[in-house]
Amino acid sequence: MSKFYVVATPIGNMGDITFRAIEVLKSVDLILCEDTRTTKNLLNKYSINKPTMSFHAQSKLTKIDKIFELLNEGKDLALVSDAGTPTISDPGAMLISKIKEELNDKVQVTPIPGATALITALSASGFPTHEFTFLGFLPHKKGRETLFKEISGAERTMIFYESPHRILKTLESLQKFCPNKKVCLARELTKIYEEFKTGSPYELLEYLTQNPVKQKGEFTVLVSQ
Fold first, then answer.
1. Which of 33, 61, 103, 146 is a plausible cystine mate for 107, CB 3.0–4.6 Å?
2. What is the mean pLDDT of each run of 10 residues along the chain (225 residues)?
3. Half-sphere exposure of 135 (CA within 13 A, CB side)
């Protein structure tokens, strides 16, 4: 039976990879990556010399055919994302679904756990952790207002990812729909400029507006009562 490993990689600090992840990446026949250049940096750091192949949201169906061909030949593969846990807001979820549907009796899918931004942010936010909802990346247009209304009425902690290009617009929407909620911006997690900033939507909007440099980097946004 072939093995297909879902391998979590660091979200910023390369020291956050697990010993088990390194062992698995050294053992497989092929590593599937979002961006082979990004993954090569990680592989080189840990002296992992294995072939790679790109697999991302724009990959053609022929890529899946090739992956299935290798698995049917008995090859062991690993799936990684550029950062964090594959399949979480990631096209790898579709691939795992297809493997489970079509090769379930021939392939063992094994998770190799590690970092993921949403849990990393939640653990240090100070917000309630016993119950939360993860929204992934918010839609750019259609359905966006509906989600903010959902966040407004939620009693549990709500978590989503946001890019630096839309963070101000997002805070404006939070100010409109839930001005009295507490918001935590977790920015550049595990990296040198990591920052947690908590306040009302208005306070955080003022903070980022007055400090444009703080608008850079990837954000995990948490909203609570």
1. 103
2. 97 96 98 95 97 84 90 97 90 90 93 96 98 94 91 97 96 97 98 97 98 95 96
3. 22
